[in-house]
Hints:
The complex is a heterodimer of chains A (427) and B (377).
Chain A: E1 9-14, E2 35-36, E3 40-41, H1 44-52, E4 57-61, H2 67-73, E5 87-91, H3 106-111, H4 114-119, E6 124-129, E7 132-134, H5 138-148, E8 152-158, E9 168-172, E10 178-183, E11 192-201, H6 202-211, H7 220-231, E12 235-239, E13 244-246, H8 250-259, E14 286-288, E15 293-299, E16 304-305, E17 308-314, E18 319-320, E19 325-327, E20 330-331, E21 336-337, E22 342-344, E23 346-348, E24 353-354, E25 359-360, E26 380-382, E27 387-388, E28 393-394, E29 398-401, E30 413-414, E31 419-421
Parallel strand pairs in A: 1-4, 1-6, 4-5, 8-12, 14-16, 15-17, 16-18, 17-19, 17-20, 18-21, 19-22, 20-23, 21-24, 22-25, 23-26, 24-27, 25-28, 26-29, 28-30, 29-31
Antiparallel strand pairs in A: 2-3, 6-11, 7-13, 8-11, 9-10
Chain B: E1 3-8, E2 29-30, E3 34-35, H1 36-46, E4 51-55, H2 61-66, E5 81-85, H3 100-105, H4 108-113, E6 118-123, E7 126-128, H5 132-141, E8 146-152, E9 163-167, E10 173-178, E11 187-196, H6 197-209, H7 215-221, E12 229-233, E13 238-240, H8 244-253, H9 257-264, E14 280-282, E15 287-289, E16 291-293, E17 298-299, E18 302-304, E19 307-308, E20 313-314, E21 319-321, E22 324-325, E23 330-331, E24 336-338, E25 340-342, E26 347-348, E27 353-355, E28 361-363
Parallel strand pairs in B: 1-4, 1-6, 4-5, 8-12, 14-17, 15-18, 16-19, 17-20, 18-21, 19-22, 20-23, 21-24, 22-25, 23-26, 24-27, 25-28
Antiparallel strand pairs in B: 2-3, 6-11, 7-13, 8-11, 9-10
Amino acid sequence: xxxxxxxxxxxxxxxxxxxxxxxxxxxxxxxxxxxxxxxxxxxxxxxxxxxxxxxxxxxxxxxxxxxxxxxxxxxxxxxxxxxxxxxxxxxxxxxxxxxxxxxxxxxxxxxxxxxxxxxxxxxxxxxxxxxxxxxxxxxxxxxxxxxxxxxxxxxxxxxxxxxxxxxxxxxxxxxxxxxxxxxxxxxxxxxxxxxxxxxxxxxxxxxxxxxxxxxxxxxxxxxxxxxxxxxxxxxxxxxxxxxxxxxxxxxxxxxxxxxxxxxxxxxxxxxxxxxxxxxxxxxxxxxxxxxxxxxxxxxxxxxxxxxxxxxxxxxxxxxxxxxxxxxxxxxxxxxxxxxxxxxxxxxxxxxxxxxxxxxxxxxxxxxxxxxxxxxxxxxxxxxxxxxxxxxxxxxxxxxxxxxxxxxxxxxxxxxxxxxxxxxxxxx
Amino acid sequence: xxxxxxxxxxxxxxxxxxxxxxxxxxxxxxxxxxxxxxxxxxxxxxxxxxxxxxxxxxxxxxxxxxxxxxxxxxxxxxxxxxxxxxxxxxxxxxxxxxxxxxxxxxxxxxxxxxxxxxxxxxxxxxxxxxxxxxxxxxxxxxxxxxxxxxxxxxxxxxxxxxxxxxxxxxxxxxxxxxxxxxxxxxxxxxxxxxxxxxxxxxxxxxxxxxxxxxxxxxxxxxxxxxxxxxxxxxxxxxxxxxxxxxxxxxxxxxxxxxxxxxxxxxxxxxxxxxxxxxxxxxxxxxxxxxxxxxxxxxxxxxxxxxxxxxxxxxxxxxxxxxxxxxxxxxxxxxxxxxxxxxxxxxxxxxxxxxxxxxxxxxxxxxxxxxxxxxxxx
Lengths: 427, 377
């Protein structure tokens, strides 16, 4: 049939996860939609990698809080993924005549979209997640997959052996054929960690998804890969040796942003080659006033800086008023910070308003009373669309979300380790 | 919107000196992130004009590159859209555009095929924000044949490079003098005209028969007593880019809060082509004050009272003062540059000094980035 061009490889991008370890940053947005680097959202990296690798058909699977993600992706214009044939398609779970279920696992989500994939009659399917910061040529990985005659190729990255127990690791022979998997092994026998990026030959993927269709919470790492391995399908590991950063925790998220400030960062966004595209409507230049000091910082378009900014990443349209000092912080798009504030080691999410004379990230550290496994690293974290009143002091390892007022700060303070989580958005 | 738009973007002026060696005035970079033509294109799309023809002639390559996709201004539509017309040789015409009226006349088939009752003609070398719907409403209310948008002469500007307008109390234009030696008023034409499409076609055909080619002298001035020509007073910022000083000043005006607020922070916005550049980066040693910095810039030292366009680079221990630095310019270490316009993709070698002594100096001519001493790329 003319009109339906066969696609050699299509990509399926799993973007439905909450990313609960990012705390209040993901209370209203899915993790792939979290801002990064003063301009981007995390999903921009895999999406840009796709178009830069020549993949023009991408299904984005959404489930958790998809609103920001949907409007960010739109019809895919920023990534040149607005196509007559293919392009980007947002794939939420949908009701079917016999069953209706949410996506219950990574492979289950892909299984529920088997018809979408069949439409393009692909030879290969690339499975991606929207959780990592990296630049990667998936076409080179596909060449490897073809050359090896693999059914599945797993992208792996060498990690320090002492950290390997945090990952799924693969054990390979000299030909890079995978002989064994270990999921978070206490005594890892290999330092090759799975990056959660897979190329499947479509036949093998379809066959295994159908075979495992009754598996509950069907997951690639736990079910599909072991199933194919047991069958003896040829599985290979494609080694990737470049920058790859998981931004799954507040600490690693903060760190990855701060690394961009280095004189020549390991992850360089300033290269002409392999551009990262995003949906950004603010295009005007930023204004740095006569009263401002800006040193070691990355600042997005349209920001207005009247205060002092050191060692920080500021998003588009941020306003920093006079007399305010920002250090070691991430301030996202549309945030306004009033006069004479002092902000240290904080993450302040989109469109939050901070009143004047307020201190954030101040005082001695104390463990979080909300969840010490999420809120740590000495960070003060404020969710999107929040309001912080004037003249209050907020400590370290704190979390705030929602519209707060003086009444929420006894003695004008939120001590280190404290939190204020208010239901509902500021309207 | 009941009008189509025509943008006259053919212009060049020797008073722009080397700046228009590279591009037409309409393609001149303005305000850190824009090209001159973005302002009128944004005004048209924000006024819901769906069909726009850009007539270009002089050095159109850069302009064509800028307009290679119409989607940034929301003109990527099945109905209407953005059309680029440069002069072409046909069986009965082998002329360049001989004037503004001739430029439109040479594309008269386009005018005849459209169905919008009105035409808004605007030049591509002005910086302003204007709702054309209001002009059209005025035009209809006054039952005018032609409406000319008028602005107050920008402060400190020389009136004798403008068309000076004198109106009666009703707004009807009594006098229209092109580039007068002595002016009777400080109200000047902003280069925006509203006219019925059929009336425009008739006037252009008549002009052409008589061998007349200029819209201002051969239509506005010649017909000013015969036709009802009205002036519409626009408020707010308006600048016309015609020489080096006005170009420099228009860019520096964006350091003013009122100008930035009007263009950057008041709806509707100004649109431009997206370049997908990373945010600007300030390394240690950067001292930036009272300056506009565009995306992709990397700054390592002092920048004062300046406008830096996209991807400008400033090395260590340099001083950039009172300058307009166009896109992709590379300023090495220990450079002093003051009162200058630095051309796009220019290289200022380490240790060099460029100062505009009597007025603004244009720095152009050195593109060779590989001349730089080792260890400095």
